[in-house]
Amino acid sequence: xxxxxxxxxxxxxxxxEYDFVNEPAYISNKNKRNVPLILGVEAIFRIKxxxxxxxxxxxxxxxxxxxxxxxxxxxxxNEVPEFHYYSVEYADYDDGSIISLxxxxxxxxxxxxxxxxxxxxxxxxxxxxxxxxxxEQKMREDIERHFNIELKQFIKHIPYSTSG
Length: 164
Description:
Elements: E1 14-20, H1 35-39, E2 42-49, E3 52-60, H2 61-74, E4 83-85, E5 99-104, E6 107-111, E7 122-124, H3 125-147, H4 151-154
Antiparallel strand pairs: 1-2, 2-3, 4-5, 5-6, 6-7
Helix pairs in contact: 2-3
């Protein structure tokens, strides 16, 4: 992933990693409308900040991808909306979303209700938005390659929640 240098006083590096749980033959293009199968496509997803593990959970990766994809469509040069990932599989979100990007001023914070450690994580806005956009692109490419599918055929059928 490409790194953009933030201010010399507060640069925090973020790394997103994921490992698919399902075998490549688990889903194919002919399953584009099979919601239970779509939600069964999973990956172990990790977020590391300055090489320290912040988040690690098994996620419905197509649902998470769609949340990123929809957020990316709303990002403008001078306007970055909040990103929130909720899963249709979980009902209790009183404490917040599974993964969030909260912009403020020229900074942003990454948060999770399932965060494994308390890490100071105020990022330069340009840097963190770029990392989330790179994640969306890389994830699309990796999902399509691993499962030999075309996500554009699936995207309208992948369920996702915009709020808890």
